[in-house]
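tool_log.txt
---
The assistant was asked to compare two proteins side by side. It first ran the structure predictor on the initial sequence, then on the second. Raw inputs and outputs are pasted verbatim so the downstream comparison step can read them without reformatting.
(1)
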Amino acid sequence: MTAGTARSPRDVARWRIRLFKGFALAFALFQIPNAGNLLAPWSPDAAPALSGLAFPDTHLWHAALPGAVRLIVTGGVLAALLRRPASDSVLVQWLVLSAVLTLGIVVPFAGLPPLLFIVLPTVIVVATYPWPSRLLDVRAAGFHRALAALTVLCAAVLAPGIWQNIDDQLRDVGGEHASEAHWALDAAHVILLLTAGALSSTRWSGWRTLAVLTGVTFIYLGIAAVAAPEQAGSWGSIGGALGVMAGVAYLLAGAAPRRRATTAGSADEDSRARRHRVRPGGTGGASAAPRSPGSGPMKPDPHEGPKVEERYVSSSPSRLGGGCWHCPPRSLLFPDPAR
């Protein structure tokens, strides 16, 4: 896909942009109750996800992990799209992947609630995106090797836990943990977090936002794992420490200042042009020897770069054969070939 196929922000009707922002804002506000789930490792009574459970004290990690991804990553992505919906299309691409993963991993075990409250609102937001062609734009925009390596490392560390959660869900292990689809929820949201890290390494527009949101989520989950190391599915104390370090690395990569384009090449060309300007008494730099009017054209030096000829134009052609007072005679610039 070429850049010309994507519609310009000016080509989209304002009502479409406002409609998209309205749905995005509503879905972002819908993530606010997840803030209580983030308090689950320290205050279980504040977590809405634990209400109605027979043994809420054993599900603290199951409330914290999905709540963090939903509030920090999903809410942060939607908030960023309210500010720059046209340019940060990679954020909408992550929303598409979140709907697909939730539909494929969570809905088969949890049923209607995640379909109505996660998948359907995400589909509405994506469907109203005013620039749908940009969602298919996967042109290479550079590659952040550090973020890619970090995501691969995190995936390698978390892969056994993801597989264990899926296996426990399939085998109905843990009673309430399986009946509430908590194993599937944990697996899906860890994959979503890794997906955000992977997309941030592509350097597509909006990658910095994803890197920062991924870093903040990893830091929180690391702290929560240290606070609740014995909970089912928790990363434990060591895993929590590693999560904090990974989060800091994502933050540093996402918040690093942009590298300015170097102008060394243009500066070299300018300096080369100044060295080879035509001057009174020579065609080289300041050390060029003066030439007599009858010596003929000067042969180019094979060891020097291309010479830039500078012509002077004056508004008063009465001086020195049409040039200004400080210019050389025309015989120096344009020697007579008959001589």
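(2)
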Amino acid sequence: MKRQKLNSRRTAALLASTLVLSQAEPILALADVKVETAAETVTDENAVVIASVDDLVQMSKNCVSETYSKGKTFVLTQDISLDGSDFQPIAVFAGSFQGNGHVISGLNITISGSNLGLFRYIEADGAVRGLIVKGNVKPDGSKKQIGGIVGTNRGTIENCEFHGMVSGQEAIGGIAGTNEEGAVIRGCKSYSVTTGNNKTGGITGNNDGTVEKKCTHQGQKDDSSWARGQAWGLYGYTSCYREFTTEKNDGN
């Protein structure tokens, strides 16, 4: 009888162990399964991933000089809203920023100064590609070189968009306030209202570099009567299409 009970206990223990193992196997298998998420997978191990507003705020804090960003690639993996954040314009950028068609929305710049936008300066080695920015850049103070993407561009801006309002005193543009000699803006779109007293343009206010063809400005700048009054009801329905190659222009 005792041996029969012992065998029964061993059989019960064996069944329990088998049940535990059968339940554990799927959990172990999940470790090898690639889970799809809203954020994109970044294969470059050296890339700096921007996947949240905190990541972008930290990037801005780090980019106090070109040393931090130079030679680095920054990859935006999902849309980000800056609403309610303490984001400040990225001071100096000399790396590669890959937007991948994602949107940074809620940009609201009202601080005093010049050379303002999402970026303040994009240096000669810097490039921003495939980024969509939505918001308003309406600083106080001197208000020169003001743009939706960047205040002063010395590098490359390609296939980017800005949606919103940009205002200031001089060199005001939907994409860049000033596009310096040697700098390139290519394939960009501005759906913006830009207002300023001197050198105001849909793409760039002051262009000494290259604004290549297929850049589009849909909206108005302040040399039209309705834009001076900022009649938002007409926003976006009057389009200005211009093509530029290497010609130097003021107010593109």
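---
observation on (2): Residues 11-38, 222-249 have pLDDT under 50 and may be disordered. Residues 2-30 form the longest helix (29 residues).
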